[in-house]
């Protein structure tokens, strides 16, 4: 069985579903048969960067990856807004003064922390049982409710144009789940009395995975041509490095695999990943010294 993560540096123009299909195709060409594959957070086709792709038992952690915070670099061009809030769309609003660098610095600070954000009309959120982008493409004028998100940090990386009349700015954002960078760019521009849309979006980090761990599509394709999979595959536990590990003895590991509750454990309450030796056994919750299984991993070792 193949279990673990391939962190793809998704290229421009490739959809997340297409990226998963590319992984499946290369595994099949490598003679590895049918492997369960999923991704840990959609990236728009125009976006690039970190796309965690889970294989085998690691797919059980995809939901956790969707809930993880993420970091992005993005460029917002000032002076016009599009219906999609990025380069793909049609300009719907134009005008406003080009913002100054001091105004950008002051406005950027007001978005750090918990905020209310209205997702883009062209997004995958569900409205009355339909995807927002399907209804937007059908010409509907959507009223989308704001939702709570958190901007953990927002920093200016670069600007284009004179300091008193910026043409664009590139920023680095660390954000909670559910945050739309296109909406953040729109709202930042509007806060400065102008309009804006995203011209570049690159995911730098998704949960525990960073760009430094990502491989190119060419390197992925090398696997289908015979390159060793272990050169690009991270272990399942690489998706768990942000939570503590809990070591089990063989008897405890068997009990956890059978879904039994362990009691009398002298550890703080919280989420852990349980292991026997180096083998992940389960994602577990500890409360009052009692351990319950949140998600078990079907990985064999001597404790079975």
If you had to describe this structure to a student in words, what would you say it looks like?
- The protein contains 7 helices and 17 strands.
- The chain has helices at residues 16-29, 62-66, 101-109, 132-137, 181-191, 217-224, 250-257; strands spanning 4-10, 37-39, 48-55, 70-78, 80-82, 91-94, 113-117, 126-127, 130-131, 147-160, 168-175, 196-206, 209-210, 245-247, 270-276, 279-287, 290-296.
- The strands form 4 sheets. Strands 1, 2, 3, 4, 7, 10, 11, 12 and 13 form a 9-stranded mixed beta sheet that branches. Strands 14-15-16-17 form a 4-stranded mixed beta sheet, covered by helices on one side. A two-stranded antiparallel ribbon has the order 5-6.
- α1 runs parallel beside α6.
- The two termini are 17 Å apart.
- The mean pLDDT is 92.
Features:
single chain, 304 residues, alpha+beta, nine-stranded mixed β-sheet, four-stranded mixed β-sheet
Overview in brief:
The protein contains seven helices and 17 strands.
Shape: globular
Question: What is the assembly state of the chains in this entry?
Answer: single chain
What letter string, H or E per element, gives the SSE order?
A: EHEEHEEEHEEEHEEHEEHEHEEE
* Secondary structure: number of strands: 17
Helical residues, percent:
10-25%
The number of helices is: 7
Main sheet specs: 9 strands, mixed
Rg over CA atoms, rounded to whole Å, is 22 Å
Approximate strand percentage: 25-35%
Which residue ranges are poorly predicted, with pLDDT under 50 across at least 5 consecutive positions?
none
Distance between the termini: 17 Å
Class from helix and strand fractions: alpha+beta
Average pLDDT rating: 92
């Amino acid at each position: 069985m193949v279990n673990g993560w391939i962190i793809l540096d998704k290229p421009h123009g490739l959809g997340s579903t297409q990226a998963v299909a590319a992984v499946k195709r290369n595994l099949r060409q490598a003679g590895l048969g049918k492997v369960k594959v999923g991704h840990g957070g959609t990236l728009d086709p125009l976006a690039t960067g970190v796309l965690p792709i889970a294989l085998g038992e690691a797919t059980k952690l995809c939901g956790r990856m969707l809930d993880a915070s993420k970091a992005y670099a993005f460029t917002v061009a000032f002076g016009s807004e599009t219906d999609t809030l990025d380069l793909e769309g049609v300009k719907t609003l134009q005008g406003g003064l080009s913002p100054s660098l001091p105004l950008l610095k002051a406005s950027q600070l007001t978005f750090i922390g918990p905020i209310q954000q209205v997702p883009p009309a062209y997004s995958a959120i569900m409205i009355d049982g339909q995807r927002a982008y399907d209804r937007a493409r059908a010409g509907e004028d959507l009223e989308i409710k704001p939702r709570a998100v958190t901007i953990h940090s927002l920093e200016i990386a670069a600007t284009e144009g004179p300091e008193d009349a910026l043409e664009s700015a590139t920023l680095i954002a660390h954000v909670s789940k559910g945050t739309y960078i296109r909406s953040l760019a729109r709202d930042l521009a509007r806060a400065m009395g102008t309009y804006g849309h995203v011209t570049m979006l690159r995911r730098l980090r998704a949960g525990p995975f960073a760009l430094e761990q990502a491989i190119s599509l060419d390197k992925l394709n090398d696997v289908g041509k015979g390159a060793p999979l272990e050169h690009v595959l991270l272990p399942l536990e690489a998706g768990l490095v942000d939570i503590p590990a809990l070591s089990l003895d063989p008897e405890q590991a068997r009990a956890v695999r059978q879904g039994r509750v362990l009691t009398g454990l002298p550890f703080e309450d919280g989420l852990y990943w349980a292991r026997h030796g180096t083998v992940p056994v389960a994602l577990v919750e500890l409360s009052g010294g009692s351990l319950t299984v949140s998600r078990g991993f079907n990985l064999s070792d001597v404790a079975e």
